[in-house]
Amino acid sequence: MTEVLTAEEAKKDAAYLTALKELIYQLADDDFLISFRGSEWLGLAPHIEEDVAFSSITQNTMGHAFMFYQLLEDLGEGEIDMLAHERHPSVRRNGIYLEKKNGEGNYLEEPYYDWALTVVRNFLYETFKKVKLEAITKSSYKPLANIAGKVLMEQPYHLAHWKIWMKQLLNSTEEARERIEARLNEAWEEFGDVLEYGTQATEIEHFGLIIGEDELKERWINEVSKTIENLPSTPIGKKYGSGREGEHTEDLDQALNTLSEVYMSDKEAIW
Amino acid sequence: MYNYLEYGSSGDSRGVVEDQEKYDQFMARIEAGEKIEADDWMPEDYRQGLIKLISMHGISEIMGALPEKEWTPKAPTLKRKLGIMAKVQDEMGHGQLLLRVAEDLMKPYGKDRGDIIEDMLSGDLKFHNVFHMPTKTWADAGMVGWLVDGAAIISQTNMLDASYGPYQRALQRICQEEVFHAQHGEAIIMALAEGTDYQREILQESLNRWWPSLLMFFGPASAETTGSSKQDIMIKYKIRKSSNEELRQAFLDKYLPRVFSLDLTVPDETVHYDEEKEQWVYQQPDWNEFKQIIKNKGPRSKERLRLREIAYENNRWVRQALAADKVGS
């Protein structure tokens, strides 16, 4: 596959550009939504040390979203904060599992957030992110491959963090193990679309932007099973549809209404 | 961020001296500017005063994360989201640093962090007045960084040479970070001050609302106002240098000119600088209200404590799992 070195070059091939943007939207929106969920946890983590550590991860992850939105800005999609704050749910490309609320209540009142969900979700997601970005380091679009390389310099620490949590909670009390396993079974019903590339899947692979969906999924399962001995035996499902195709839940509406509240309060303003 | 001096009834400040010789040596060390360390002998009222001060400072950092946290997921741009997240994270980090210092002091009593958190939830341990107040707009996120942290820098700088070594070293680091926080807050404020009519409007409204709390921040001028104050003992033991009122004057000196230069006003028509006395004259805040606020009867006291209580109770299973200590490799 020919390498594409700049945004200007990418813009010359309409089909390439469409596939490329699709893939980057997925990367940006995934990181943005999961880091938004992380930001809601601030001050509420199980202990103070974790609050600090989790916040570092969340900041890094939102920083990654920033870099991906920057790539989209370079490709002519509009300004970064508009991309993050203004886009309609139907054009958001994050996996549905990543928009899921942290638990009952909300971060301002009665936040009955579930640490088991957070550990399972972040572990599965960071494992996925690792294999996806590793594949992207060989992408035909060099600016994206370079960003993937940069992100991979800090992302392994995030994954290591959640791996430790998984192991600790699976090997301590009965209650902790049951809570984690229940969330794992739930994830298995919902994680499916995260592993997909949506309507442009064929083109994304064809243009050498990343390896095919099946291979990515296989690598992910392989990585996940290094930490969890007994994975759920059922196939991975897409209970709520595909976020890659713009299908989303009310949880995304709640996320977008919150994260864009101030931004939307005065669109003329520079904040 | 934080702190004024403790009011409240508990704590032993009667100056009962257990061992005159040790006490004299202790005072001589303090007078000579030496630092007292965790394992050194110290008088009971020194230890108890420090536990009160530092655990209150620590939980104020942690409770102080909550008002700003209300605006963190809502911050209007990605850069602001990242900035305020880092800032709130710092506050939690300060809380952790300080609770570790307090825990060491509490060891002889067989108490630890769990006791501090439980004392806070039960209302025995107070947190700073400003963190009982509501936030209503994004401008409050800026105001907390700019003026509340600005006030905190003034009050903490006053203790940078504190006689207790572990606290003094923690403060060095905290103060350095607070300077960034104040700049972060100032950047938000500047954007609002130079912004649209709506932005200026929420900025002025925010300042009006925070003004009395900022005056209260340093605590009452004397014990007569609220019934008790530990200013004197803290000064005697060289924990701090200046009085509450001196700190408040330093705050007004530094920030009122800045407030006015941004074309903002404070909700006090009488405020002015008395050239002769070389001090600011201002309308006293309602100290009765202050007393109520720090008794956890402020506008948001219950809700903020409720958040911490839920986080504490709801994650109990996690702490139990960690304590089970059967961690795999």
UniProtKB/TrEMBL annotation, chain A:
<dbReference type="Pfam" id="PF05138">
    <property type="entry name" value="PaaA_PaaC"/>
</dbReference>
<protein>
    <submittedName>
        <fullName>Phenylacetate-CoA oxygenase subunit PaaI</fullName>
    </submittedName>
</protein>
<dbReference type="InterPro" id="IPR007814">
    <property type="entry name" value="PaaA_PaaC"/>
</dbReference>
<dbReference type="GO" id="GO:0010124">
    <property type="term" value="P:phenylacetate catabolic process"/>
</dbReference>
<dbReference type="InterPro" id="IPR012347">
    <property type="entry name" value="Ferritin-like"/>
</dbReference>
<dbReference type="InterPro" id="IPR011882">
    <property type="entry name" value="PaaC"/>
</dbReference>
<dbReference type="InterPro" id="IPR052703">
    <property type="entry name" value="Aromatic_CoA_ox/epox"/>
</dbReference>
<dbReference type="GO" id="GO:0005829">
    <property type="term" value="C:cytosol"/>
</dbReference>
<dbReference type="InterPro" id="IPR009078">
    <property type="entry name" value="Ferritin-like_SF"/>
</dbReference>
UniProtKB/TrEMBL annotation, chain B:
<dbReference type="Pfam" id="PF05138">
    <property type="entry name" value="PaaA_PaaC"/>
</dbReference>
<protein>
    <submittedName>
        <fullName>1,2-phenylacetyl-CoA epoxidase subunit A</fullName>
    </submittedName>
</protein>
<dbReference type="InterPro" id="IPR009078">
    <property type="entry name" value="Ferritin-like_SF"/>
</dbReference>
<dbReference type="InterPro" id="IPR012347">
    <property type="entry name" value="Ferritin-like"/>
</dbReference>
<dbReference type="InterPro" id="IPR052703">
    <property type="entry name" value="Aromatic_CoA_ox/epox"/>
</dbReference>
<dbReference type="InterPro" id="IPR011881">
    <property type="entry name" value="PaaA"/>
</dbReference>
<dbReference type="GO" id="GO:0005829">
    <property type="term" value="C:cytosol"/>
</dbReference>
<dbReference type="InterPro" id="IPR007814">
    <property type="entry name" value="PaaA_PaaC"/>
</dbReference>
<dbReference type="GO" id="GO:0097266">
    <property type="term" value="F:phenylacetyl-CoA 1,2-epoxidase activity"/>
</dbReference>
<dbReference type="GO" id="GO:0010124">
    <property type="term" value="P:phenylacetate catabolic process"/>
</dbReference>
